[in-house]
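Catalogue entry: protein

Sequence with per-residue tokens
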Amino acid sequence: MRADAALGWLSRQHSDELVVLGLGTSTQEWHRIWGPADDQSFHMHTMGLAASFGLGLAVACPQHTVWVIDGDGSLTLSFGSILTMAELSRPNLKYFLTSNRVYGTIDGPNLPNAAATDYAAVAKAAGVERAVNVSSLDELEAAKELIATPGFAFTVMEVERKGPGGPKPLARYEGPEIKYRFARYLQNEHGIRVLGPLGY
């Protein structure tokens, strides 16, 4: 399925969940859909850290559901985060992986072991009970219960690779502004203390 279709479907399920975005195709599509009004999401400007940041947010804010929307290129750089997510298995954490088997941000190349890696199987082998692969919107719809019910879920969305030179919609803000907008959203909307008395 196309990445924009998968992320579009996911955006229609979104209400008040906190969203952590990895660097890559998933982030580009999420920003294209949500635009500049999206303060509920935090965009990691470093590959490989979205899973760890999102897990930490889920631990710190157990009363809120946290979505991590990551890419397989980003996950490849921190594969051990699967083990940590599996061990802690936070019931308020939902991990979504857009898998196109390439480093899409730089128009390829293929990921290591691209043709063979089964990310959901890796998660299951680590102890994640609710780990699934989906490759169509119908399969996403069938897996909707994983999103709607409490419990850690690891959903791999197999998406088409974009051709080189394709459009790359990006965040409207630089990293520091994204950080402060997200922090103020947590404080103002949810009463979660993030910033110190001096505002940082």
Q: What stands out?
A: The first strand starts at residue 18 and ends at 21.
